[in-house]
Amino acid sequence: MSLVEVRWHGRGGQGAVTASEIVAIAAISEGKYAQAFPSFGVERRGAPVEAYTRISDSPIYVRSKIYTPDIMVVLDPTLLEPRLAQGLKEGGTVIVNTEKSPEEVKKILNREDAKVATVDATKIALETLKRPIVNTAILGAFVKVTGLVSLDSVLEAVKSKVPPRTVEANIEAVKRAYEEVIVP
């Protein structure tokens, strides 16, 4: 595997930063190199947030934001607009928390070349966690769509990052999204 770059888009409080960290932890546990870091302005719940993850089989020396991601993950469907997909590599992958179909998302992003997968992570989070924190649900979709890290590695990383009282509900959210993601 060469360097794979993932850009996460969400809003403060949805867990985009934690999701990016969980993927990096899972990759490292599998013997890969990884880095994860956030980018946000004023810290407040609901403000747009970006997070980044890089995964590689060799050391990663780049330390900048990710401008041309291979994969884009969107935790908040209200962020969907053509500008969001700027920089996405030709034929890149987009994973979106939405009730919309992959075809509808392609049209919104104006990226017919993209491989789009959708999952209703909000519904899953509300049913499992009783809160609209969608990061662990979107992780299940990420694992299924990308194959970059294993489901088992992500589940172990979730255990290390979420509060102990919510571990089982978060694991259920990951597993449900893994099964329910729509991958055309």
CATH third-level topology: Pyruvate-ferredoxin Oxidoreductase, domain 3
Q: Which regions are unreliable across 5 or more consecutive residues at pLDDT < 50? A: none
CATH class: Alpha Beta
Q: What's the total number of strands?
A: 6
In short:
One of its GO terms (molecular function) is pyruvate synthase activity. The protein has 184 residues and is α/β, with parallel strands linked by helices.
Give the topology, please:
Blueprint: E1 4-11, H1 16-29, E2 33-40, E3 48-56, E4 71-74, E5 93-97, H2 102-109, E6 115-119, H3 121-128, H4 135-146, H5 151-161, H6 167-180
Describe this structure in words.
This protein has 184 residues and is an alpha/beta fold. The chain has a single domain (4-180), classed as Pyruvate-ferredoxin Oxidoreductase, domain 3 (3-Layer(aba) Sandwich). It is built from 6 helices and 6 strands. It has helices spanning 16-29, 102-109, 121-128, 135-146, 151-161, 167-180, and strands spanning 4-11, 33-40, 48-56, 71-74, 93-97, 115-119. A 6-stranded mixed β-sheet has the order 2-3-1-4-5-6, sandwiched between helices. Strand 5 (93-97), helix 2 (102-109) and strand 6 (115-119) form a beta-alpha-beta unit. The longest helix has 14 residues, at 16-29. The two termini are 24 Å apart. 48% of the residues are buried. The model has no long low-confidence stretch (mean pLDDT 95).
